[in-house]
UniProtKB/TrEMBL annotation:
Protein name: ParA family protein
Lineage: Bacteria, Pseudomonadati, Pseudomonadota, Betaproteobacteria, Neisseriales
Gene3D superfamilies, A to Z: P-loop containing nucleotide triphosphate hydrolases
Any matching Pfam family: AAA_31
Source organism, top-level taxon: Bacteria
Length: 256
């Protein structure tokens, strides 16, 4: 079983899109994925067509100690989602960066046996390194980093390198895997960014590219993952290949 934090301090690189579509790919492959929306923007929650009260979201866990398992919503595509709410922004301000606060999420996942259940868990992080994202990185076994084919997105990945080095120096090593999102074959910037990421990360940079995809984009507008919206599209194929690569290379370990 693996807990994956999907993170990049740069906004808009595809963290939420990747979380939603990788979880959907897992569900289609017979796994029983759990996704935690840990972003006060609650985009993943909205994309899933949910509009729960704050207390029925991950905010209820941080604010009122509601068990995580009581906050799970089952989606029609077979994904289990703990949704988010804009009130979650207060948690980033209320909690401190002390050891106890930062480990609450990890501790609860272990105590509720979520991390022993064979269920892969994906955490959709917000684009800031506050208490919420640090909680996710500490709770995670590994970090998946989407990078879009533009230079500023690589800066975000570089900032993350420094954050992960900081965790490693505290005995919290987290393997990371980067993948290129919104790739456009033959486009000079796409190719330059791909070459630079290969140079920088070597085998920790996924071979699979997720192409710029109209189906991915349109699916979101219909509150659907790309497999439900356009199962035969290239977008569905890309996320399916990405999941295969992450499993085959041992980055994600899941039992059926
Ligand atoms: N492969 C893709 N093809 C086309 N559009 C995409 C693709 N990946 C992401 N997008 C679009 O890019 C935008 C940003 O994606 P997304 O919300 O997933 O990024 P994010 O990293 O979660 O953003 P934030 O940092 O705000 O949480 C969205 O409009 C999404 O639909
Ligand atoms: Mg997002």
């Amino acid at each position: 079983m693996t807990v994956i934090a999907v993170f990049n301090q740069k906004g808009g690189v595809g963290k939420t899109t990747a979380t939603a579509n990788l979880a959907a790919a897992m569900a289609r492959n017979g796994f029983d994925p759990l996704v935690i929306d840990l972003d006060p923007q609650a985009h993943l929650t909205a994309m899933s067509g949910l509009h729960p009260e704050a207390r029925r979201t991950i905010y209820g866990f941080f604010q009122a100690q509601t068990p995580l398992s009581e906050l799970v919503h089952r989606l029609p595509n077979g994904v289990n989602l703990i949704p988010s709410h804009m009130e979650l922004a207060r948690v980033d301000m209320l909690l401190t960066q002390n050891r106890r606060d930062l480990r609450r999420l990890k501790k609860a996942m272990a105590e509720e046996m979520l991390t022993d259940s064979g269920t892969p868990i994906l955490i959709d992080c917000c684009p800031m390194l506050g208490v919420l994202s640090l909680s996710a990185l500490i709770a995670a076994d590994a970090v998946l980093v989407p990078v879009t084919a533009e230079y500023l997105a690589m800066n975000g990945a570089h900032q993350l390198d420094q954050t992960l080095s900081g965790l490693t120096s505290q005995g919290l090593y987290r393997p990371r895997r980067t993948f290129l999102n919104r790739y456009q074959r033959g486009h000079p910037t796409s190719e330059k960014v791909a070459a630079e990421l290969t140079r920088r990360y070597g085998r920790d940079f996924c071979r699979t590219r997720v192409f710029e995809s109209q189906s991915v984009l349109e699916g979101i507008g219909h509150n659907q993952d790309v497999f439900s919206y356009a199962p035969d599209s290239e977008g569905a194929e890309d996320f399916s290949y990405l999941l295969d690569e992450l499993i085959e290379t041992g980055f994600i370990k899941i039992a059926k």
